[in-house]
Specification:
One of its GO terms (molecular function) is beta-glucuronidase activity. Keywords: Glycosidase, Hydrolase. This protein is α+β, with helices and mostly antiparallel strands. It is 18% helix and 35% strand. The strands form eight sheets. It has an eight-stranded parallel β-barrel with strand order 23-24-25-26-27-28-29-30, surrounded by four helices. A six-stranded antiparallel beta sheet has the order 3-2-4-10-7-8, with no helix packed on it. Strands 1-12-5-9 form a four-stranded antiparallel beta sheet, with no helix packed on it. Helix 1 packs parallel to helix 2, helix 4 runs parallel beside helix 5 and helix 7 packs parallel to helix 8. The longest helix is centred in the middle third of the chain and has 18 residues. The protein is globular, with a radius of gyration of 24 Å. The two termini are 40 Å apart. The model has no long low-confidence stretch (mean pLDDT 95).
Length: 568
């Protein structure tokens, strides 16, 4: 399932999830041997969506693998294939013909097959989870390098003239919303067509339009209307409005919530009211499913976040599934969304690479286009822990922030720095996120106080002294069940001591507007015997979760819950 609600009533759709044929290609011979047309007979069955690194025999596999399934068309049809997430390189073939390539494991892409003949069709996908120094993520990232078709595949049947996209913009004046729908209508016909386009929401019809669409062309139109007595979307008060656009044979349904998010001085305001953020960083990962995270567990994670007293979650460190973000919309939980730009060990050569920059800008565009309507998203995150002391990081920041602001002026732009005392990109962002691990990677917890004073001095020099600050990562590892008489490294007691002492420092600082603990639940990481990275990751897990990987609460969880549910 791609969304929590139906996006089409007129347009026929079906999910292609289920058992697919699967085979690894460690010698990378599938292209030369034309596996797209002659799929190997020694393949086995794999579930889609899933990660192959959760299966016997492919636990550590990095490289190419091939998937195959079939679909039928009962008549000649225009077919659109929608892929929600494939890690990381995807080459798509239909009936032996290569129809497209996509890079990026966490964003949706689609491909159209116009006037596909009646009958049975073979869909083959070559998937490659190989990463290097110019990919996002790079070959060094603090999570496991999973591979596979991790999210649903959907088949849609399009009419010759179809609704390609809808963008909902609005301006709020008290309890009235002035709404503009920007709609693109595309043609697969060989002739010019005239078509009526209409839109409605909750009983209100917006102004309709009569549109001429040239053969094989796309036309853009805007419809507008005014909604009175609206309810604003807010934390714990998730008022949502569903918009339906229709043509003669097609429709597109999406929804949004009306709310404002802005910075005023050093405060963040949601609907004009000060907002203090309490949350965690969360990977969409589980040891049994990897990144192919099932909806049932999403609901459980959301219940746990609410139980803890969170009002925000950071999607670390990649765009998360639309189903999850829909749930956040429906429950009034805020989200920081970002691309897989984890840069702790990233070189300046990577930061300066034109290919790397191009891929990052493209991923930002895909993320914002897909998730533009989600009211839960209040932050777009540009990057995480790159070396923001360097000119290369400054130039990359300019490109990334420019892309974000060109596409969306309604949200705040942020990032996470691990060099707050020397950072040179502070002035480009609305909100500053600081990642520091005093009490774990360096010094004692008391080091936070000195670091913050040095950060404020640096920010003043750059003209960024008044910007809101979020402690976007902090914490310590604690092995579930490891307890003792007093705190010591890797015990639940030590983790709880670090987190609670840090929270007291941050909550006493009026310039800090929120805390995001690292992290929600323990995650599998990429520990290899031939590499020096992440050697402190006992059990091959990042053990800084407030919960175990199976969502069992540690001592730190119970103490954080007391703090988050108390008065500040």
């Amino acid at each position: 399932m791609i969304r929590t609600f139906q996006q089409h009533n007129l347009r026929p759709t079906r999910i292609l999830d289920g058992l697919w044929d699967f085979i690894t290609d460690p010698d990378n011979k599938g292209v030369s041997e034309d596996w797209a047309s002659h799929f190997p007979t020694n393949s086995k069955k794999f579930v889609v969506p899933s990660c192959w690194n959760n299966e016997l025999g492919t636990y550590d596999y990095i490289g190419a693998a091939w998937y195959r399934t079939y679909f039928d068309t009962l008549k000649e049809a225009n077919i659109r294939l929608v892929f929600e997430g494939i890690l990381h390189h995807a080459d798509v073939y239909v009936d032996g013909q290569h129809i497209g390539y996509h890079f990026g494991g966490f964003t949706q892409f689609s491909m159209i097959l116009p006037h596909l003949a009646t009958g049975k069709h073979e869909l083959v996908i070559r998937v490659d989870n190989t990463v290097d120094w110019q990919t996002l993520p790079t070959d060094i990232a603090d999570w496991h390098s999973y591979g596979g078709i991790i999210r649903s595949v959907e088949l849609q049947e399009l009419p010759d003239v179809y609704i390609d996209s809808m963008k909902i913009d609005y301006q709020l004046n008290n309890n009235t919303a002035e709404v503009q729908l920007h709609i693109q209508v595309s043609s697969l016909s060989q002739e010019d067509c005239q078509i009526d386009v209409s839109a409605s929401t909750d009983g209100l019809s917006l102004s309709a339009a009569h549109v001429t669409v040239g053969a094989g062309q796309t036309s853009s139109i805007s419809l507008s209307g005014s909604l009175a007595n609206i309810k604003r979307w807010d934390v714990g008060q998730p008022a949502l409005y569903t918009f339906t656009v229709k043509t003669g044979d097609d429709d597109l349904i999406d929804r949004t919530g009306f709310r404002t998010i802005e910075v005023q001085g050093s405060d963040i305001l949601l609907n004009g009211k000060k907002l203090y953020l309490q949350g965690v960083n969360r990977h969409e990962e589980h040891p049994e499913w990897g990144f192919a995270f099932p909806p049932k567990l999403m609901l459980k994670d959301l219940d746990i976040l609410n139980d803890m007293g969170c009002n925000i979650v950071r999607g670390s460190h990649y765009p998360q599934s639309q189903f999850w973000i829909d749930l956040l919309d429906e429950h009034g939980m805020l989200l920081w969304s970002e691309i897989p730009m984890w840069g702790c060990f990233m070189s300046v050569e990577t930061l300066a690479s034109p290919i790397f920059r191009e891929r990052g800008v493209h991923m930002l565009g895909e993320m914002i286009s897909r998730d533009y309507h989600h009211p839960s998203i209040i932050f777009w995150g540009a990057h995480n822990e790159i070396d923001t002391r360097t000119q290369e990081a400054l130039e990359l920041t300019k490109a990334f922030v420019s892309k974000i602001r060109s596409m969306d002026s309604s949200r705040l732009v942020t990032y996470a720095t691990m060099q707050p005392e020397e950072d040179i990109v502070l002035s480009y962002f609305d909100v500053i996120g600081i990642n520091k691990y005093y009490g774990w990677y360096e010094g004692s917890v008391d080091g936070f106080s000195t670091m913050l004073q040095n950060y404020y001095k640096n920010a003043e020099k750059q003209g960024a002294g008044g910007k809101p600050v979020i402690m976007s990562e902090f914490g310590a590892a604690g092995i579930f069940g490891d307890a003792g008489w007093e705190p010591r490294l890797f015990s639940e007691d030590y983790q709880a001591d670090v987190v609670t002492r840090a929270l007291k420092i941050f909550r006493d600082d009026p310039r800090i507007v929120g805390t995001l603990i690292w992290h929600f639940a323990d995650i599998r990481v990429d520990v290899r015997s031939d590499r020096p990275y992440f050697r402190d990751r006992a059990r091959s897990f990042n053990n800084k979760g407030l919960l175990s990987e199976y969502r069992k609460p540690k001592l730190a969880y119970r103490l954080v819950k007391e703090i988050y549910r108390s008065e500040r």
